[in-house]
Each structure stands twice: as structure tokens, then as C-alpha cells.
């Protein structure tokens, strides 16, 4: 995919673009949701969530440098294991991305619905009983349209817009942390014993990473991978862009969570417990309670800017993913067309907009959308470690501008962590997401039948490990411990042990399942163009 006539994206622009994706509605809602689930121990949930995503991202550095192309994360599994695995991976990733666009719009509208001024009473109709109302839904559609239109006019406009937005998005959380700490500082809220620190036990620390939007908040590292062909000096900047962005956002998230925990009045916790603290617009409501009205105004403003910045970035990424999926020959041809002037996949972007509108019409709450995103993203990420190691065996002579020294250790670790985090999404979300992913298979087999491909059975065998894995993770989610909404046939933490052991079996099965398909030679051609 061509970029416009401007210079390619440098490291600073890349970090700003990625932070524009990373720091979205997650910080506005995640701390409140996480403490409701895990109490003060939610601080550990952010560390765990960051480590899970960093372990997964590590594997994609080698792949991103080997195959720098727009929407690359939708192609790697197809290069190593053929069209069916590639389709399942890209479909899963796409499901998460089309859910990301509306979740940011929902966040903006939810904060807007709690504006405290008398002249703004009309905004209260946008949100009721934890969900977006029909009038609010129309406003959500409006935000999503804006996200898409900003992306219609070239990489230049996108990077200029996100550079400004990202600086603002780093500044407001920083000011919030400082002001909350100065205005209400109660370190005793962390508790004076292990029980007070973990009032609901240790299991919610893990479930919060999936259900409170923590993994969702770190998910945007793939912005770097999917902008591959538009990045300067891919050899160095892919790894730098990913880890600097994750590090900066991780520090910000942990500081925000800590400030939130210590800002709550101890009497409120004693009266309601962490479970019972209910906010419509968490940080803005908290600022009003503490009498910092100017901060609440700034937070209401940021509740527009943070989600818009993230929504704009993901409208770009999602368009590239659907564009790449069409090039796999399992999607309608019009999705692969580029605009003649700016070389942007406008048809794919408009298609994503329409389907995102359908998604948010069905799932109207922020937390539900965040959990769907977490589970579907992680299913897509399962193929990354498998593909990276498989290429070491099937393509030892491919150029590797970045050859990871710890890949043989980190790949299975990342696969296991992703499996655990899918489980943390809890029954029945796990099976619901898996069913949505399996809905894509009829589309795949229709295009396979239409093309009269001879490799269909071979591709099925190469992808069988992931299909069986999805059945396994559904069953273990149903049979698992009560702490994760399971039937309790396997108690906590033995459910973790079962997942770790069996996930490793699936990982090695996946690596052994790699075969040479025509897509392998496309990968070689792309790799030949890479400078080491």
C-alpha cells in the first residue's frame, strides 16, 4: 500500500500515534472498574496486563521487521500456515478492532451525559442504567463518522492530528494524578493487611485485567505493526515504538490507578465497599466531590479528546486490516480498493463504520465492549508466537533485521499468558466471542469453493490446532472455577495449571503445523525487499 508524498513516519510521530491509540477511554473508566472488581489490588492488575501484552508484542517485533506492510498483523499467520489460519487470525483481530471504534465513542457520550451544569441537562438522556440510550446512540454514530472522515485525507493529516492529541492526552492524566494526590491523599486505602489489600481474594486481580478494560487499554501496540510500510527505519523503530509506547502508557496507567485508590474518602469505602462505589463519569465525578471544579471541566473536555484520538487511530488501523484481509482473497474485491489521490482504503473504512454501528447497537455498555475486545484480540494474538517460531524452521534464510535472542523462550510464555487472559474474560463471554469468530468461517469456505482451491484440506490441517484450541478454551471456561464464572468442576488455582499445561501442547502443535503454501512465496518476495 502506498503512502502519500510526505515523508514516512519517524519514531517521535510513531510513539505519538501509538500513545494516541493507547491512552483512550481505558484511563477514564479502567481504574474505577478495576477497583470495583479487585479493590486496591487492582494496581497489580495493571502490571499483569502490561506484562501480558508486552510478552505478546515481543514476538511481533521480529515479524514486523521481516514483513513491513500495511495491515501486516492480518497476514503473518497466512504466510506461515496458509489461508485458513490467516483468515481466523485476521477475522479475530478485525472483530476486536471494529469494537474499538464504538467503545471510544461510547466513552465520550457517557462522560457527556453527566455534565453537571444546568444548561446541559439535556445530555442526561444519552445514558441510563449503565447503557447508552437510543438518543445517545445517534450521537455515538456521529463520533464514529468523525473518526472515519479524519482518516480519509492522508497520513500527513493523521500524524499532525495525533501529535497534538497525544500531547494533550499525556498531559491531562498527569495533571489529574497531581491534583488528586494534593487534594485527597489516603495511602491507608491500600489497607493494613493482605485481606484489606485484596478484599475479594486473588482471583479478581486476574479477572480485572480482562473485564475492567486493562488489557484493552494496552492493546494498541499493534498500531505500530499495522503501519509497517509507512515507518522510517523499520529495523529499529518498530521495537522502539512498541516498547516506549507501552512503557510510557504503563507508567501513566499505574499512577492513575494509585491516585484513584488514594483519593476515595475512607468513610465512603467503609460504607459501600469498593464494589459499591458507582460513578457515571469516574474521574470527573471524583473531582467534583473533592471540590476541584476546574479539573472536572478539563476531564469532561478530555473525555472528548482522549476517545477521539484513539478512535481516529483505530479507524486507520481497522481500515488497513480489512484492506489486507481482501488481499487474502476471502473478502469482496471492493474492500481492497484505494482512493486514487491519497491511497487510503476508503471502501474498507466505510464498511468498518457500518459494521461498528451495528456492534454498538447490540452492545451498548463500555465494560461489555471492553471484554469482547480483550477476548477477540487475544485469540488473534495466539498466532503471533506460533508464526514467529514456525518461520525459524520453514524460512531460516529469510532476512531478519531484528532477530530476537529470547524468542524460543518468550513465544511459549506469550502463548500461555494469552490463553490465561482469554480465560480471565470469564464464561459466557469466552464462548460468545468464539462463536462470533466462528461466524466468519462460512465466508471463508464460500470464497474457497468459489475459487476451487486445491489446498483447502491442507489449509484445514494446518489450522486444525487453533480450531481444537478454541473448543478446549470454551470447555475449560465452562468447567473452570466459580471465580471465573465457571461451573466449579476445576477449582482455583488448579484451573490455571490445566490451562498452562494444555496450552503448551497446543503451542507446539501449532508450530509443527506450519506448511508451505503459495502465500509463503509472497512472504519471501516481500522479505526480499527488506534492508537488513
TrEMBL record:
Record's subcellular location: Membrane
Membrane topology, as annotated: Multi-pass membrane protein
GO MF annotation, one: transmembrane transporter activity
Coiled coil location: none
Signal peptide positions on this chain: none
One GO CC term on file: membrane
Keywords: Membrane, Transmembrane, Transmembrane helix
Keyword Signal attached: no
Membrane-spanning residues: 9-29, 41-61, 82-112, 132-152, 164-185, 197-221, 242-263, 283-301, 343-363, 369-392, 404-424, 430-447, 459-480, 492-511
Keyword Membrane part of the UniProt annotation: yes
Protein name, per record: Amino acid permease
Species name: Weissella paramesenteroides ATCC 33313
InterPro entries hit by this protein: AA/rel_permease1, AA_Transporter_AGT
Amino acid at each position: 500500500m502506498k503512502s502519500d508524498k510526505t515523508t514516512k513516519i519517524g519514531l517521535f510521530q510513531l510513539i505519538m500515534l501509538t500513545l494516541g491509540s493507547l491512552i483512550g477511554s481505558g484511563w477514564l473508566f479502567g481504574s474505577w472498574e478495576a477497583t470495583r472488581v479487585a479493590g486496591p489490588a487492582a494496581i497489580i492488575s495493571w502490571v499483569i496486563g502490561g506484562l501480558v501484552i508486552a510478552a505478546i508484542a515481543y514476538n511481533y517485533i521480529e515479524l514486523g521487521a521481516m514483513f513491513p506492510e500495511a495491515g501486516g498483523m492480518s497476514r503473518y499467520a497466512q504466510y506461515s500456515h496458509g489461508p485458513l489460519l490467516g483468515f481466523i487470525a485476521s477475522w479475530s483481530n478485525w472483530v476486536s478492532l471494529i469494537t474499538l471504534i464504538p467503545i471510544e465513542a461510547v466513552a465520550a457520550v457517557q462522560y457527556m451525559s453527566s455534565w453537571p451544569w444546568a444548561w446541559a441537562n439535556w445530555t442526561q438522556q444519552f445514558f441510563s442504567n449503565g447503557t447508552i440510550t437510543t438518543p445517545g446512540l445517534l450521537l455515538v454514530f456521529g463520533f464514529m463518522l468523525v473518526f472515519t472522515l479524519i482518516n480519509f485525507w492522508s497520513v500527513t493529516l493523521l500524524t499532525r492530528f495525533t501529535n497534538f492529541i497525544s500531547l494533550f492526552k499525556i498531559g491531562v492524566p498527569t495533571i489529574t494524578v497531581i491534583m488528586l494526590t494534593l487534594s485527597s491523599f489516603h495511602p491507608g486505602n491500600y489497607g493494613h493487611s493482605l485481606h484489606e489489600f485484596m478484599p475479594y481474594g486473588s482471583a479478581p486481580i486476574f479477572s480485572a485485567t480482562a473485564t475492567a478494560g486493562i488489557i484493552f487499554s494496552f492493546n494498541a501496540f499493534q498500531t505500530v505493526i499495522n503501519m509497517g510500510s509507512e515507518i522510517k527505519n523499520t529495523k529499529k523503530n518498530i521495537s522502539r515504538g512498541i516498547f516506549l509506547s507501552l512503557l510510557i502508557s504503563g507508567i501513566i496507567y499505574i499512577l492513575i490507578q494509585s491516585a484513584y485508590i488514594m483519593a476515595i474518602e475512607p468513610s465512603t469505602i467503609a460504607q459501600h465497599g469498593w464494589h459499591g462505589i458507582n460513578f457515571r463519569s469516574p474521574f470527573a465525578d471524583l473531582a467534583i466531590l473533592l471540590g476541584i471544579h476546574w479539573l472536572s471541566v478539563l476531564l469532561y473536555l478530555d473525555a472528548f479528546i482522549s476517545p477521539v484520538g484513539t478512535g481516529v487511530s483505530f479507524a486507520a488501523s481497522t481500515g488497513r486490516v480489512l484492506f489486507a484481509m481482501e488481499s487474502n482473497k476471502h473478502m469482496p474485491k471492493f474492500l481492497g480498493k484505494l482512493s486514487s489521490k491519497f491511497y487510503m482504503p476508503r471502501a474498507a473504512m466505510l464498511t468498518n463504520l457500518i459494521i461498528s454501528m451495528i456492534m454498538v447497537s447490540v452492545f451498548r455498555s463500555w465494560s461489555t465492549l471492553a471484554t469482547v475486545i480483550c477476548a477477540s484480540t487475544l485469540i488473534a494474538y495466539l498466532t503471533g508466537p506460533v508464526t514467529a517460531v514456525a518461520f525459524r524452521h520453514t524460512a531460516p534464510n529469510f532476512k531478519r533485521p531484528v532477530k530476537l535472542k529470547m524468542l524460543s523462550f518468550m513465544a511459549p510464555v506469550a502463548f500461555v499468558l494469552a490463553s490465561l487472559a482469554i480465560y480471565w474474560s470469564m464464561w459466557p463471554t469466552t464462548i460468545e466471542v468464539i462463536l462470533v469468530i466462528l461466524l466468519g468461517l462460512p465466508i471463508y469456505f464460500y470464497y474457497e469453493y468459489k475459487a476451487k482451491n486445491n489446498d483447502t484440506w491442507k489449509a484445514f490441517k494446518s489450522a486444525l490446532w487453533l480450531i481444537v484450541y478454541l473448543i478446549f478454551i470454551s470447555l475449560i471456561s465452562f468447567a473452570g472455577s466459580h471465580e471465573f464464572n465457571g461451573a466449579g468442576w476445576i477449582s482455583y488455582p488448579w484451573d490455571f495449571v490445566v490451562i498452562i499445561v494444555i496450552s503448551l501442547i497446543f503451542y507446539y502443535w501449532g508450530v509443527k503445523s506450519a506448511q508451505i503454501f503459495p502465500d509463503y512465496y509472497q512472504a519471501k518476495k516481500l522479505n526480499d525487499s527488506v534492508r537488513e
